[in-house]
Amino acid sequence: MSTELIEESIPDVGPRSVGLVSTQSAILFAPPHELTLANSRRLGPITVAYETYGTLSPQRDNAIFVCHALTGDAHAAGYRSKEDLAARKAGWWDGFIGPGKGLDTDKYFVICANALGGCQGTTGPSSICPETGEPWGPDFPVIQIPDIVDVHAELVRSLGIERLLAVVGGSLGGMQVLEWAARYPERLAAAVVLASCPRMSAQGIAFNAVGRSAIFNDPNFNDGRYYRDSGPRAGLALARMVAHITYLSEESIERKFGRKLQDVEALAYDLIKETEFQVESYLNYQGRRFVDRFDANSYLYLTKAMDYYDLAQSYGSIENAFAASQARFLFVSYDSDWLYPTRQSKEVVGALISAGKHVSFIELHSAKGHDTFLIEVEQLEALARPFLERTLEVLRRPAAS
Amino acid sequence: MSTELIEESIPDVGPRSVGLVSTQSAILFAPPHELTLANSRRLGPITVAYETYGTLSPQRDNAIFVCHALTGDAHAAGYRSKEDLAARKAGWWDGFIGPGKGLDTDKYFVICANALGGCQGTTGPSSICPETGEPWGPDFPVIQIPDIVDVHAELVRSLGIERLLAVVGGSLGGMQVLEWAARYPERLAAAVVLASCPRMSAQGIAFNAVGRSAIFNDPNFNDGRYYRDSGPRAGLALARMVAHITYLSEESIERKFGRKLQDVEALAYDLIKETEFQVESYLNYQGRRFVDRFDANSYLYLTKAMDYYDLAQSYGSIENAFAASQARFLFVSYDSDWLYPTRQSKEVVGALISAGKHVSFIELHSAKGHDTFLIEVEQLEALARPFLERTLEVLRRPAAS
């Protein structure tokens, strides 16, 4: 046995890793119990891909649900295979989820699931439509953030968890956290909202619209019915390029690339070769890499879900949205995040304070822009750990004390 | 005669308009006197479209040259036709140029010319190549900002003006002003640089690269040889859409559009119809309108010229670039301009101060972002008028005094 282990020479996962993980799958909303979507259409069965890390307490009171952002998936922490482990290719929030980390898997049972409309194992436009036996494509129903949350809430219930310790997420994930707190006030003790907003700004809609136009313009888009062919790869890559710029701060992109040239001694004066500057090469690479893992229709559906989101409009006001909530809220924004500026977090925080809710808020300094919540996990850890510990303490305190 | 006038019922041009104007044309650098470009290729003859407003003084010392931005042209003020006048379709900087305005045509002789590489009358990739009798397309030589300035400097000389009172411009126009001051120190008494920079930021290059990719992705681009067909209209429109977002501040786009819906009562849940939100409709309109007046190859060449621009690299340092300059400098930046942030103006201003030059600088407050210099002309007028008057005064003062 020991010889075998040595021969396989598995790299050490490190003391703070959840190690090897596997993505699981649940089938929910099977007919005749289809989910009624926000737009009144019914959808089911719905497959949900999810992962869990840590151990559910006997009281089932230590579960934390993680909502991923636009292009994330269920694989938030650890390694899916030995190959991934060898290549140190960990889940998208591995720095924040693990033993002793921000979401401490020694203490908490962490769940992350792919969003409805996505393309990483949860039902979406690239899934097979049961009626036709073909991918849904543009016939997939339009989804909204409440639909994404409904599916995840059902998943959590199917895992035997009536109340979550916390729901945590950034960006589009943060919108889901807000919707969780509004829609299921009795089902979460805390809400952690990072770099997010209660409704997309006009500028945010504008950038999303540009990305969608890039996909629509692609001659291989074929009105969304492209699954027999390569699909709108160039258009999706372009959508990713423009979005990626908005995820970085002006300062970080300047520091990282400046005017450094890629693989050339000097400007080549070649208009067609779009990689003269490193920043061009980097964006091209980000675009190309993205199309290998993401579906263009999912990009359309999920960016539309973002654009449609308007918490105050849905509930009359932000105060109304959280009228029944007893959750403890933690909001974090970043001073260099120009896509989801601090003002947007403040709007929700102000409403919660006015409504007499428990709410903590901090604007953190960072040079890294919107993506900071994915990258600078140390400062998040310092906030999240005591906040979650205190929440669990309050939760477990006898009602009389 | 009077009856005729009444019948024609020409609208009053107003007391501060230059009135009806006509675009003129000069042919420069005719062989064997071709212009040697920055990349060592030779180009000629070069046609230059230009307009002038006001009257050149007998001393020929009151001429101001206006450098336009990326998509501008020679038509900076007044009306090109009675139809334009009736429709109030004035030149792009009509608010700033005219009798009693910022560039006061009662006092100054204002010249504006289309840039080399453009598509509004000056030689560019859509012009006919004399050797082939076909449009240049991608065979047009790569141009840089010094080339644009060389052509304009020759135009000014051909108009009999040895020294300009001032060169004025914003954005890409501001880069040209910097280059004028560096390249022709003896030929301008003042330089007015608005919302500009001494080199493109990595973020600026990134957005330009996205725009160019949109054009390259268009199936009608045909490697730039599209003049017999409709050309990459969708790609060029998309490039304009993304650029347009960067010209506006987050605040102004939010105030103007917010989440207002276009022509619909409520969200139509129609992914393909990209005009549910007014901001989408607005961007689509801006894109469509742009392709009717602009050439995609010009967009490629001119954004590349912007990206290549690096004053410090060209001259060793910014101080060096202006070592021989005796010009009086005026820099204006805007606090909501995130594409050309104040820091970039300050870098040049600091270098000029260190070099003991005469330099004034102000960051103006505006909610309108980068485009402010085109829109909020009142505050510019209040700065430019005394600055130019004083410059003329200094210029006309006997050397002994």
Kindly describe this structure:
The structure is a homodimer of 401-residue chains. By secondary structure, chain A is an alpha/beta fold. The first copy, chain A, folds into two domains: 11-199 and 309-396, 3-Layer(aba) Sandwich (Rossmann fold), CATH 3.40.50; 206-301, Rna Polymerase Sigma Factor, Chain: A, CATH 1.10.1740.110. Chain A is 37% helix and 13% strand. Chain A is built from 14 helices and twelve strands. The first copy, chain A, has helices at residues 2-8, 82-86, 145-158, 172-183, 202-217, 233-247, 250-256, 278-291, 296-308, 311-315, 318-321, 342-354, 372-375, 377-396; strands at 24-28, 35-36, 42-43, 46-53, 63-67, 97-98, 103-104, 109-113, 166-170, 190-194, 328-334, 359-364. In chain A, β2 and β3 (42-43) form a beta hairpin. In chain A, α3 crosses α4 (172-183) and α5 (202-217) runs antiparallel to α6 (233-247). The longest helix of chain A is centred in the C-terminal third of the chain and has 20 residues, at 377-396. Chain A is globular. Chains A and B meet through α5, α6, α7, α8 and α9 of A and α5, α6, α7, α8 and α9 of B.
